[in-house]
Amino acid sequence: MPAAFDPLRLDVFNELMKDVLDPGLMWTLNDFLNDRSFIIMHEDCDSSISKLNKGCVQGSVLGPALFSAYCRNLVNKL
Fold first, then answer.
1. 8 Å CB contact between 45 and 59
2. Domain boundaries in the chain?
3. In 10 A of CB 60, how many CB atoms?
4. d(Cα 44, Cα 3) in Å, to the nearest integer?
5. Residues 33 and 13: beta-carbon distance below 8 Å
6. Distance CA 30, CA 38 (A)
7. Which residues is 42 bridged to in the sheet?
8. Is the pTM above the cut of 0.70?
9. Which secondary structure element, helix H or strand E, spans residue 57, and what is its range?
10. pLDDT per residue over 4-43, tens digit each?
């Protein structure tokens, strides 16, 4: 089931924000959004580790702000 911020693609985010955000902040956000993985744990069973290659961190304070900036700049670009 897709989550709310899954449509955020890092390559598009970088293209949209490269002229808007400070390079140091861009580096920090890329570090925050890249190389993420997850595992599902239920009772005595664990899933295998899976990579996340899109979306914003669910449940993070930055999630809504990053997704909002992404959408706003995407609309402006279109």
1. no
2. 10-77
3. 12
4. 25
5. yes
6. 18
7. 45
8. no
9. none
10. 677 778 888 888 888 888 999 989 988 888 888 888 899 9
Amino acid present at 39: I
In this structure, what token pair is assigned to residue 27?
């580096």
42's torsion region: left (phi>0), alpha (psi -120 to 50) or beta? beta
28-32, Cβ contacts within 8 angstroms, sequence gap of 24 or more: 29/62, 29/66, 32/57, 32/62
Residue 67, Cβ neighbours under 10 Å: how many?
A: 18
For residues 63 and 5, the answer to whether their CB atoms sit within 8 Å is yes
Work out the widest C-alpha separation in the chain, in whole angstroms.
48
